[in-house]
Amino acid sequence: MQELTHWIDGKHVKGGSGRFADVFNPATGEVQAKAPLASKAELDAAVASAAEAQVKWGATNPQRRARVLMELVRLINRDMDKLAEALSREHGKTIPDAKGDVQRGLEVVEFCIGAPHLLKGEFTDSAGPGIDMYSMRQPLGVVAGITPFNFPAMIPMWKFAPALACGNAFILKPSERDPSVPLMLAELLKEAGLPDGLLQVVNGDKEAVDAILDNETIQAIGFVGSTPIAEYIYGRGCSNGKRVQCFGGAKNHMIVMPDADMDQAADALVGAGYGAAGERCMAISVAVPVGEKTADALIEKLVPRIEKLKIAPYTAGADVDYGPLVTGEAKKRVLGLVESGIKQGAKLVVDGRDFSLQGYEDGFFVGPHLFDNVTPEMDIYKQEIFGPVLSQVRAGSYEEALKLAMDNEYGNGTAIFTRDGDTARDFSNRVNVGMIGVNVPIPVPLAYHTFGGWKKSGFGDLNQHGPDAFRFYTRTKTVTSRWPSGLKEGGEFHFKAMD
């Protein structure tokens, strides 16, 4: 049994609390490793060491910091296969999906190489007689990230790359379900030239999270996970005077208009609804066709596509569509919600409850499910399922479909499939959701834009990656400067209006 470690001060460190979490092989259900769960004392010691290392790093010019990230890009590309295999082994994703996880994180690292430009301040000369004013963006000090199991490569990079580029030290608390890739990324950062102590990977559970929230040295916290935990971290972190950004759950709708290309819409729904076994915060879990004719046509297109899906472990080849869920508890929850959908009157069009894979009967595989005639009162509509379950809610009109997306408590992503530009523009302008796709099912912005949901999908003023990340991980200092001979004329005892 492999015993994983923390990464402290540039080296692997065994856990000292005596507590561990099981890391499963999701395909077999077997425990393949155990991850140490840090105590408050271990977390606080890692923070104290990071604070010492940050002083010199924060004073290093941005171009030199960017060169470390430039080298990290090369090393990640070198080790892409190794990272993807480790990710798939612990999470269950297919290899192509795991490489996509790494790649979307890598793109943020690439964007952060532009830190010298992104950190430039503003300057006004002659703001008054002999007076210049300028602003500087300076690092916060020590910051932290609490990241989820479903993107163990991408989201840590979304957090630590801009934080380090800005001159901060970073405490990463990854998911204890699949912590190996974050540890591997820490090794690569050391190889890339990052000084010891600037990235500390501390594995843990709620005790470590609470230690992060209460540690006075930590100035900012980024989180991705479920909405209840996001609300908890945001509230406690803010009450402790920290800068906090939290991204929670989702219930993403895809509106299908009567004029849409039905084959394109069906292909998009299958990929967005069942990819990664539905364990994505940007997954489409609700299809909203407008009109009965559209709904019937969409079901007709979806069923054969869903029935052809290949569900298998990542070792079965590149043609696997999706693998197992991450834990047995996740499988139990998803199947429980499927049962609730049946009991509450939804029509189960594709039934994956009896799915079993020979040789992997103890794995956490769940077959694909498709519901029709779902209503907003049902649990499968109200709750984020986080599994391979797609619900179809029939809408009588465009306005009814729009209202469904707008009335939902979540506001992460949404999409509309249509050939009509007026409808697409109206939808994009009116819907109260943070990320919109027009004939694009999963509208995750590229690294130079920002990622963030509205309503109960996002808490905080600034989004992830893009320019917002550099705003989040720095504070602005403004200097008013005067160097005229008039300084010799004596002090002034009142505010003087500038000419």
CATH topology of the largest domain: Aldehyde Dehydrogenase, Chain A, domain 1
State mean pLDDT (0 to 100 scale). 96
Oligomerization category of the chains in this entry: single chain
Label the overall shape.
Answer: globular
Look at the structure and give the CATH class of the largest domain.
Alpha Beta
Name the poorly predicted regions.
none
Radius of gyration: 25 Å
Widest beta sheet: strand line-up: 15-16-17-14-13-19-20
Put simply, the count of helices is 16
β-sheet strand percentage: 15-25%
User: Fraction of residues in helices?
Assistant: 25-40%
The number of distinct β-strands equals 23
Largest sheet: 7 strands, mixed
Structure in words:
The chain has about 500 residues and is of the alpha/beta class. The strands form 6 sheets. Strands 15-16-17-14-13-19-20 form a 7-stranded mixed β-sheet, sandwiched between helices. A 6-stranded mixed β-sheet has the order 10-9-8-11-12-22, sandwiched between helices. A 3-stranded mixed β-sheet has the order 1-5-4, with helices on one face. Helix content is about 40%, strand content about 20%. The protein has 16 helices and 23 strands.
